[in-house]
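Structure tokens please, single chain.
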Amino acid sequence: MKLTVNDKKTLSLLLEDGRTTDATISESLGITKQAVGRIRKKLEKAKIISKYTVQLDYERLGIHVFALVLATLTNEWQKMGELEATEALGSDPNLIKAFRVSRGEITHILVYAFKNQEELTDHFQKQKNDLLTIKQIHAGTHIGMSKDENKELFKKVLDESVGSEVSPEVMSAIDRFKDSLK
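Here you go.
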């Protein structure tokens, strides 16, 4: 999908505050509220934006330990299929991100969040996991997190994509990947 200048400016404003009103965006861009509404609908229909969410502060919610886990699907799950495995992975409330690795000994890179080190230890010791073989766990605290947002990356992509169009094949692959993480 090719984005217009106003599409990109609207996305930039929404990145700053997802609750920004159409009136505020129209005033900032010098276009009508109706035009902004059409841009929002176009971006939603293209699945570039899909929700307006709250940005949670992990520390204030009592989540202080994060774990980066390198794992491999067990043979049973590899035979059953990736969709079933992905759905099973998604049922773990401590899992906050999952990345499928295309080749090699590791099949998934997983990011977990916990209140403390004890909860992390309990989670992996008590969890009967016939889904994954865990290869490595790298734990750290929230203090070590330098970034928790992608605003700068998205703005960079928007700035670099002036006049460029993402191929339908690439968009389809991105959509399939995003759906697999839900």
